[in-house]
Write a structure and sequence with these properties.
Rossmann fold, binds 1,3,4-trihydroxy-5-OXO-cyclohexanecarboxylic acid
């Protein structure tokens, strides 16, 4: 069956930005030891229990992330995005999220506000419904819960 926004089970896109494919070995003291694959599995497990369908993606390329956001706009009921370093630089990702009519949440494993000053600015925060950061893998699960709540209200 082809999934669309009208399907019984709602689709949530989770998009991950650059270098998140290296989770597990990338600065584990900051990002933890879970791999992106571990995170994807936990997201799918959690979402199944509350009746949501996850499409989980990662790209190191800004334009590909813009394409994925546009696809989420066509297919999904909600968007969760960890834009990684593009958080702090990307007008293109900001603009793509602004076109959406579905709820969107920005997430981070770490708490960027507590880190280097260049991480204090988020171009994405101005475009999304809300931001969850600093809870490691749990930031993803909290965002799924938040999207589910937004979809119910
Ligand atoms: C990050 C925080 C960003 O500042 C950083 O560039 C990342 C990961 C996080 O999940 O904590 O790559 O988005």
């Amino acid at each position: 069956m082809i999934e669309t926004r009208d399907s019984m089970t709602k689709i949530i896109y989770i998009i991950n930005g650059p270098n998140l494919n290296l989770l597990g070995t990338r600065e584990p003291e900051i990002y933890g030891r879970s791999t992106l694959n571990d995170i994807e599995k936990e997201c799918i497990k959690y979402s199944k229990n509350i009746g949501l369908n996850i499409i989980f993606k990662q790209s190191n390329i800004e334009g590909e992330i813009v394409n994925l956001i546009q696809k989420a706009g066509d297919l999904a009921s909600g968007l969760i995005i960890n834009p990684a370093a593009y958080t702090h630089t990307s007008v293109a990702i900001h603009d793509a999220i602004k076109t959406l009519t579905i709820p969107s949440i920005e997430i981070h494993l770490s708490q960027p506000a507590k880190r280097e000053s260049f991480r204090n600015k988020s171009f994405v925060a101005e475009a999304v419904n809300g931001t969850i950061s600093g809870f490691g893998l749990n930031s993803y699960l909290l965002a799924i819960k938040a999207i589910d709540d937004l979809l119910k209200t």
